[in-house]
Amino acid sequence: VSTLASADSATALQDLVDRNLKEAAEIQVFTGIHSAIKRLRASGRGISVWTSRDYVTAKAILDATGLIHDVDHVVAGDQVSQRKPHPDGILKIKDLYKCEAHEIVMV
User: Taking the model in full, what pTM does it have?
Assistant: First the structure.
């Protein structure tokens, strides 16, 4: 029974990833986001993404929207022990930049 349940879970998870990857191509960014990110980067700020999505889907969305070239790091839900709203993701970003918490702005 556990083997069947495991196989069903794996199939369901793969179906979810496949659907998310298909939908990634349809996601649109908010107007002005590209120029806002470019201004932030030009001022010397780092840009990272923290999402509850899995890394593969998050990267696909960033690729499809052209934002992948504008971010330093992507921290996804499957890369931390606890997903949002737990602070694991933002703490990982803090460590990646080797900065203090008060130096981070989350939007």
Answer: 0.81
